[in-house]
UniProtKB/TrEMBL annotation:
Listed InterPro entries: NagJ-like_helical
Source taxon at top rank: Bacteria
Gene3D superfamilies the UniProt entry points to: Hyaluronidase post-catalytic domain-like (1.20.58.460)
Organism: Fictibacillus terranigra
This protein's name: NagJ-like helical domain-containing protein
Start and end residues of each NagJ-like helical domain: 1-109
Length: 123
């Protein structure tokens, strides 16, 4: 995530953003992959809210990275669409009381919502 924020050129940011989006996609899909391969239904029932929250964090990360990339490219309408999606996902995340120890995600999502914060070229 730090490398994404430190990207100083559009192409570098695009590459870092695509890599980050792939990681968020994996996070979003992990619960469904687990559900399709794990036979322990009791475990899946007990962890369902945690798995749902993990998937939501992954989707929110995808939306946040997309939004920031679109803002960086001055694609205002597209960025706004991603912002609406991100804000909706963050509300859903907040409504799940189970805690996940991924505070880095909260920081990333809030930083993305606060607006562009790119390192100046050469830093």
């Amino acid at each position: 995530m730090d490398e994404f924020w430190k990207a100083d050129e559009a192409e570098s940011m695009k590459i870092k953003g695509e890599s980050l989006s792939q990681q968020f996609y994996a996070m979003k899909e992990a619960p469904s992959r687990l559900k399709s391969t794990l036979e322990n239904q009791n475990f899946l029932q007990e962890t369902a809210p945690y798995l749902e929250k993990l998937a939501l964090y992954g989707a929110a990360g995808e939306a946040a990275a997309g939004m920031v990339l679109m803002e960086h490219q001055r694609l205002t309408a597209e960025a706004q669409e991603q912002r609406v999606i991100l804000e909706g996902l963050m509300k859903k995340i907040k409504n799940i009381p189970q805690k996940l120890s991924i505070s880095t995600m909260d920081s990333f999502l809030h930083r993305a919502l606060s607006g562009p914060d790119f390192a100046p070229p050469g830093q």
